[in-house]
Design brief:
Layout (H helix, E strand, L loop, with lengths): L1 E3 L2 E2 L5 E5 L3 E9 L9 E10 L5 E2 L6 E4 L3 E4 L7 E10 L3 E11 L10 E12 L4
Parallel strand pairs: 3-11
Antiparallel strand pairs: 1-2, 1-4, 4-9, 5-6, 5-8, 5-10, 7-9, 10-11
InterPro entries: Ig_TRAPPC9_Trs120_4th, Trs120_TRAPPC9
Pfam families: Ig_TRAPPC9-Trs120_4th
Protein name: TPPC9 protein
Length: 130
């Protein structure tokens, strides 16, 4: 489950926020399997989509995280969940997207890391209302 500014998000919803206001993010990972899972790293990566196949991830001047954009998850037991909180601060107006990825954080494995990507979250940063 993904909440942006307290609102549940899915790939069909555009969340609107104001430039200069911290936007709270909440990501909840629920383990529906019969076995414990982990360790994982949860990474949130903002980008702009230029609608021509190009994604711009170089947004240091437009977006900043309040806190970290990566969270480490040790183990999630069966039927339990783990919730992670963060905030984004938009410095400019525009349409932005947020990739949220879980990947295995086990360096003792010889296989490539497994990735689970959630649908991108669409956030529209607008001018503050005077």
């Amino acid at each position: 489950d993904i909440l942006v500014d307290g609102k549940v998000c899915d790939c069909d919803v555009v969340v609107t926020c104001q430039v200069g206001d911290p936007v709270p993010l909440q990501v909840k990972l629920t383990n529906w399997s019969k076995h414990s899972v982990g360790p994982f790293a949860l990474t949130m990566m903002p980008y702009q989509d230029y609608q021509n196949g190009v994604h711009n991830y170089d947004l240091q001047d437009a977006i900043t995280f309040v806190g970290s954009n990566t969270f480490y998850i040790d183990t999630v037991k069966p039927t339990k969940d783990s919730v992670y909180f963060g905030s984004l601060l938009f410095l400019y107006t525009g349409d932005f997207y947020l990739n949220i990825k879980f990947h295995e954080d086990n360096c003792s494995r010889e296989l490539p890391l497994s990735w689970l990507c959630l649908p991108s979250v669409h956030i529209r940063a607008t001018e503050p209302v005077a």
